[in-house]
Design goal:
The protein is mainly beta. The protein contains 1 helix and 9 strands. The strands form 2 sheets. Strands 1, 2, 3, 7 and 8 form a 5-stranded antiparallel beta sheet that branches. The radius of gyration is 18 Å and the shape is globular.
Length: about 140
């Protein structure tokens, strides 16, 4: 019985250790921006890995946040020369609140790679990182 409890503890502990944690990437005018990688399992299709973004407003007032996402793979930046709004994120965040990216949420989740053993589609270079650029934070009247 004691050995079974030890094995269960080690299994549960190792699964928590394997999970990615939020890494602070930027801070501007009381807004902190974090990124992490996450396993995303759709209701149908292939498992994938995504980059998720979390924004924390540490101010006592609502803010509007705007920034651009740069997508990088081992060959370099994929969209650094683009002016497309596809890579622009705009959100309002209430005072002392956080907005957390979820798998498949269109504005705070960015596809990195398929990690499903059964995926045999077109070859591609997975993203190595995303960068947050041109951050703007504005005070909003409540």
């Amino acid at each position: 019985m004691k050995q079974a409890l030890i094995l269960i503890f080690l299994f549960v502990g190792s699964s928590f250790l394997a999970q990615e944690s939020w890494v602070k990437k930027n801070e501007k005018k009381g807004v902190e921006i974090y990124i992490k990688q996450a396993e995303c399992i759709p209701s149908h299709g292939f498992k994938e890995r995504n980059f998720l973004i979390q924004l924390r407003n540490n101010n006592n007032y609502e803010v509007g946040v705007q920034f651009f996402i740069e997508k990088w793979n081992k060959e370099g930046c994929l969209n650094c020369k683009s002016q497309s709004n596809e890579f622009k994120v705009e959100l309002n965040i209430k005072s002392n609140e956080s907005v957390v990216g979820q798998c498949f949420h269109p504005s705070l989740s960015f596809f990195k790679e398929f990690n499903d053993a059964s995926y045999n589609g077109r070859a591609y270079l997975p993203l190595t990182e995303i960068k947050i650029k041109n951050i703007q934070v504005q005070y909003l009247m409540e």
